[in-house]
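Supplementary notes for students who missed Thursday's class. We covered one full example, reproduced here. Read the sequence, then the structure, then the short commentary at the end.
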Amino acid sequence: MEDPKVKLLKVQLGKVAQKITNKKQELVGKQNELYKVQQESKKLKAEISKLNSEVKSIQKKIESIQNKNTN
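Structure (token representation):
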């Protein structure tokens, strides 16, 4: 016959093991979310960079037109 204390400790051990499993699953979920956010961040930074290039190009065209009109 198993000692009641051992039985109780085994139950507690099972509960703790389940909590560990749950936390590991939660961690994997958070890591997946983080990866998605990082990818979205890279995409947005690339879009911003492209838009900044467009701004510079438009500014140069404006300056060119203004210089032609003043000469």
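Commentary. The helical segments are 4-70. The mean pLDDT is 97. If anything here is unclear, bring it to office hours.
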